[in-house]
Structures are given as C-alpha cells and as structure tokens.
Design goal:
With 229 residues, the chain is an alpha/beta fold. 48% of the residues lie in helices and 14% in strands. The chain has twelve helices and five strands. The protein has a five-stranded mixed sheet with strand order 2-1-3-4-5. The radius of gyration is 20 Å and the shape is globular.
C-alpha cells in the first residue's frame, strides 16, 4: 500500500469544512491515511475483512450523523452489523429493517441486538411538535402514536425532558417489536440471543442502558402468538 502524503495524515477539522474545503477530497485523503495506518499496524486486518464477516452485534440506531456506532462503542470495522433510520423507529411492516434483522440473526448469528435512541433527536422533537414536514410525517407516525398513548405522562414533564422520555419510550417499543419477530424468538430460545435498549447522550458521548422488566408476564402469550414452526 502506497504511503499517503503528509498532509493527508492530519485529522479532518470541522473548521476546514466550514471554511469551504473540498469535503469529499479531504475525506478520501483521510481514508487513504486511515487505511495505510491500519494496514501498517495489522497487515492481516483488511484481508480478514475481505474474507467475510462475523459481527456479534446488530445495532439498530438513528441516522443522526453524531452517532457513528462503531466509534461510539470503541469497536472496529467488522464488529457491528448496522441498520439506521430516522429516529431509530422499528415497526413490523418495515421490510428493510426486517430483512436486516433476519440476515443478522439467522445467518450472521449475532449474539446481541442493540436498539439505541439518543438525546436531541430531531425526529423525536418533530413528533412532539405539530409542524407539517412532508414525507417524513408518515415515517414518524409510530412516534406520534407513542406521544398520544403517553400524553398524560409527557405533558406532566418539563418541556426539555419530554424528548428524552419519548426517546426512551420509542426504544422500549422497538424492543417489543423485536420480541414479536419469529426469527428473534427462535434465536432467544435456541442460543440465548440478547436484546438491549440504550440511550446515547449526544452531549456527553456516553451510553446508558434502558432497564427492562426481568419477568415479563406477557412473554408466554407473545411466544405462543408469534413463534412460527
């Protein structure tokens, strides 16, 4: 691998982008510098990735640019299989998300599924408001339904806390959707697949775990209803 120019080894700075630097050219130069550095430190790293993947984690998160999952988790390329969308919404009719989940669970055999929401989420804030935004309004319907369902609780909170709480409720709802997925049900029963809800604090860079009920009284009924033979 050819060594990059010294200028490419300097990190990308937001100030350079904001002052009109050619962002794509800069990013491509940085890519060469990164690839060279990684290959120099571990010559087998990229050949191993080229031969296949075996991630242990499926990450379902928001498309927000501030939450690059591999970086946030302190992991490396190949460690995390990823699905991201506006406001990390999961619903049963989403074929895109459903395909990702099936592939990750059934074929890649991931051991953990993480659904991660975050603070300062634009989609959540939009769902808490009533502005007409266009196509995204349809996508945000599940969030608006959560807002309606938990209206009393949300309206009792200070304005600044409502977004955080709706983000938590959204993650909890997504975990329920996962628990109704036949492929997930099988993997949880057969090989102890774990599902987790997290919230990422954009202002601190830290993840927190969303607590789940240890003993779900509806679990038996849910498995009987959604498990497929």
């Amino acid at each position: 691998m050819t060594a990059p120019s010294p200028s490419a080894l300097s990190p990308i700075r937001n100030s350079s982008i904001k002052t009109g630097a050619k962002t794509l050219d800069l990013a491509l130069a940085q890519n060469k510098a990164w690839a060279y550095k990684v290959a120099s430190e571990d010559p087998s790293f990229f050949p191993k990735l080229g031969s296949g993947q075996s991630p242990e984690i499926l990450w379902i998160g928001c498309a927000d640019s501030r939450i690059p999952e591999t970086t946030v988790l302190g992991l490396r390329p190949g460690d995390v299989f990823v699905h991201r969308n506006i406001a990390n919404i999961l619903h049963t009719a989403d074929i895109n998300a459903g395909s990702v989940i099936e592939y990750a669970v059934k074929y890649l055999k991931v051991r953990h599924i993480i659904v991660c929401g975050h603070t300062s989420c634009g989609g959540v804030n939009a769902a808490l408001g009533n502005a007409k935004l266009g196509m995204i309004d349809t996508w945000l319907l599940p969030l608006r339904q959560l807002r309606m369902k938990h209206a009393t609780e949300l309206e009792a909170l200070p304005q600044n806390d409502r977004g955080f709480r709706l983000s938590q409720l959204n993650v909890a709802q997504s975990l329920e959707v996962l628990k109704e997925n036949a492929v997930v049900i099988d993997a949880m029963r057969e090989r102890d697949l774990k599902i987790h809800g997290l919230i990422y604090n954009v202002g601190s860079g830290e993840l927190s775990v969303l607590e789940q009920k240890a003993d779900d009284p509806a679990a038996k009924a849910r498995i009987e209803a959604f498990q497929l033979d």
